[in-house]
Amino acid sequence: MIRPYTPQDCKAVKFIAYADEQRGSMRGVCAWRCDYYIDNEPRHCFVSTDEFDKPTGFAICSVNRKKFADLYPAYLKTVKEESRKSYRAEKRLLKKLSALPPNYSARMVISVLPSFRGKGEAKALIQTLIDHLKTTKAKGLYTVTDTPSAVAFCERMGFHKVMRIDKKRCVYGFDLK
């Protein structure tokens, strides 16, 4: 089942974010993977759940690029305290993303627990998020990919490559209008 995020889901979302990343500290990973979104734009966040309503995945989103650009750097202070390498990588990413076409205003992060992958949860999460975003002023949705499986998934979902960030990472976008 897919449902809107609630504050009671906070711990589970952070656990899922960390379980997907598995490098660095939980505090640092959550600072750049989920904290901004659930703190500032929770109405654009959704979770997939098991039969007991326990979150098994999430699609979280920021629809306001200016607000994100203004507030997100404060979250990176935690990343810097935990890992200078991750901090530098995220700063480089933000600089590159400033060149992203303005019609891609919504930034998405998605994650599903490994034991729940391959069951359609990520597809359902993205479809729910897309349907939700079509009710907002967002014209486009984007995500940053860094693995071949993420690229393949984005392409299956109708996303297209918008720009290359570096050797590993690309931005994939979806036009909402």
Report on the architecture of this protein.
There is one protein chain. The chain is an alpha+beta fold and 177 residues long. It contains 7 helices and 7 strands, in the order βαααββααβαβαββ. The chain has helices spanning 10-21, 26-33, 35-40, 65-82, 84-97, 121-133, 148-156; strands at 2-4, 46-49, 55-62, 106-112, 140-145, 160-164, 170-175. A 7-stranded mixed sheet has the order 1-2-3-4-5-7-6, sandwiched between helices. It is globular, with a radius of gyration of 15 Å. The chain starts with a strand and ends with a strand.
Strand order of the largest sheet: 1-2-3-4-5-7-6
Got a strand count?
Answer: 7
What composes the largest sheet? 7 strands, mixed
Structural class: alpha+beta
Low-confidence stretches: none
Percent range of helical residues: 40-55%
Output the radius of gyration.
Answer: 15 Å
What sort of overall outline do the alpha carbons produce when their principal axes are compared? globular
Distance between the termini: 26 Å
Strand content: 15-25%
**SSE order:** EHHHEEHHEHEHEE
Instruction: Please count the helical segments.
Output: 7
Assembly form of the protein: single chain
Mean pLDDT: 93
Structure described in brief:
With 177 residues, this protein is an alpha+beta fold.
Give structural attributes.
177 residues, alpha+beta, seven-stranded mixed beta sheet, 7 helices, 7 strands
How does the SSE layout of this entry go?
Elements: E1 2-4, H1 10-21, H2 26-33, H3 35-40, E2 46-49, E3 55-62, H4 65-82, H5 84-97, E4 106-112, H6 121-133, E5 140-145, H7 148-156, E6 160-164, E7 170-175
Parallel strand pairs: 4-5
Antiparallel strand pairs: 1-2, 2-3, 3-4, 5-7, 6-7
Helix pairs in contact: 1-2, 2-4, 4-5
